[in-house]
Design a protein that fits this description.
Blueprint lengths: L1 E7 L12 E10 L21 E10 L7 H25 L19 H26 L3 E3 L1 E7 L2 E7 L3 E6 L4 E4 L6 H7 L5 H4 L7 E2 L3 E3 L13 E6 L4 E6 L1 H4 L5 H10 L4 H10 L3 H10 L3 H14 L6 E7 L29 E2 L4
Parallel strand pairs: 9-14
Antiparallel strand pairs: 1-13, 2-3, 3-5, 4-10, 5-6, 6-11, 7-8, 7-12, 12-13
Helix pairs in contact: 1-2, 6-7, 8-9
């Protein structure tokens, strides 16, 4: 398993702001005999052992406008992987056949995808309660988004709250698929058909998320749960899994002016093209990752891309890939991994909607 991370305060906040983003990755590599696949293991990379890898990750974006956003994101990015690491290793251990090992009846039970997704929900709930514990101790509100996952056995199990995103970019077919739906006002407007895909990039309410971990002081036991969306998708050797805060897709500082010009132009194609050129689109992310020479270079380049487009907010990214997985199937056999979603999302520094 190869991985890289990058995070930056963002050009607009440099010297006068804090980075409220947090990232965490935990990788367990298991090597035995001839490697994963045993006698059938590929010999194409003689210097690279065919180890079996499992990984857990979490990326959190503390909500702007609250002093403790950076504390909330730190809690989320540490509690979630801590809760998932043992499960990931147990999932790997439950497959001794990968190394041509037969444990007979003493082999541990293999957790189902549903069990792993349930564990992700439980881990996020634990992080939510931990943030609330801090909130009530410190006497100040704290909120954060989180996107987290477990990559094991050629599958990615993941969950999220808020508008931090998860993508998968496939080098064989040169595609990008967004694996998450933003929990945001703009995503809801887009889903309802009230705004189009272009306007979603620069909408004035793009900083408002509709769900997050954390809360206000005084939150009691009845409010200590948060809704976590989960999903499972297959992974292939040519895939790069990419988690990001909204600081990359929401880098444009001139978004309000672009929005006004777009509406004044009656959503004309020329105005649409100007917005797509100014913001960071999913196609931009795909092209950048496909062109990168390495994961480290891609991660650093994503920070540069966000800052070049305005650097409005904190920037963070996690990139992972496992070249020992099965090869990508032909185009006609390739499953669609992007869930039916609400369209492109919102922009601006993350804030929580005020209580009604």
């Amino acid at each position: 398993m190869d991985y890289a991370t990058a995070y930056d305060v963002g050009d607009r906040k440099r010297g006068r702001g804090i980075n409220e983003d947090s990232v965490a990755v935990s990788v367990f590599e298991d090597g035995h005999r001839s490697g994963a696949g045993g006698e059938n293991a590929s010999a194409s990379e003689a210097t690279r052992p065919q180890n079996r890898s499992v990984a857990t990750f979490a990326l959190a974006d503390g909500a702007g406008g609250y002093e403790a956003g950076e504390v909330a994101s730190y809690i989320a990015s540490t509690v979630v992987p801590e809760r998932l690491a043992d499960l990931a290793i147990r999932a790997a251990r439950s497959d001794p056949a990968a190394f041509d090992v037969d444990l007979g009846d003493v082999a541990p039970a293999q957790p189902s995808p549903a069990a792993i997704r349930r564990a992700i929900v439980d881990a996020v709930q634990a992080a939510h309660r931990a943030v609330l514990g801090y909130v009530n101790e410190a006497g100040q509100p704290a909120f954060t988004t989180v996107v987290a996952g477990v990559a094991v056995g050629g599958e990615l199990h993941y969950g999220w709250v808020g508008d931090s995103r998860l993508y998968v970019v496939n080098g064989e077919h040169e595609t990008i698929e967004r694996l998450t739906r933003d929990h945001s006002v703009v995503a809801e407007l887009r889903a309802a058909g009230d705004i189009d895909e272009v306007e979603a990039h620069v909408h004035p309410r793009g900083n408002e998320i509709t769900d997050a971990l954390g809360g206000h002081p005084g939150t009691g036991p009845g409010d200590d749960r948060v809704t976590v969306e989960t999903h499972t998708v297959p992974l292939y050797a040519e895939d790069v899994v990419f988690a990001t805060s909204d600081g990359i897709v929401d880098a444009q500082t001139d978004a309000p002016a672009l929005h006004d010009r777009y509406l004044a132009a009656d959503r004309a194609e020329e105005a649409s093209d100007a917005i797509r050129e100014a913001v960071v689109t999913d196609d931009d992310l795909r092209d950048h990752l496909l062109a990168a020479d390495s994961l480290d270079g891609a991660a650093r380049g994503l920070v540069d891309l966000a800052n070049d487009r305005g650097g409005k907010d904190n920037v963070s990214a996690i990139l992972c890939r496992d070249p020992t997985l099965a090869s990508t199937p032909p185009d006609g056999d390739m499953p669609t991994r992007e869930p039916e979603h609400d369209g492109p999302v919102a922009e601006r520094q993350t804030v929580i909607l005020p209580d009604e």
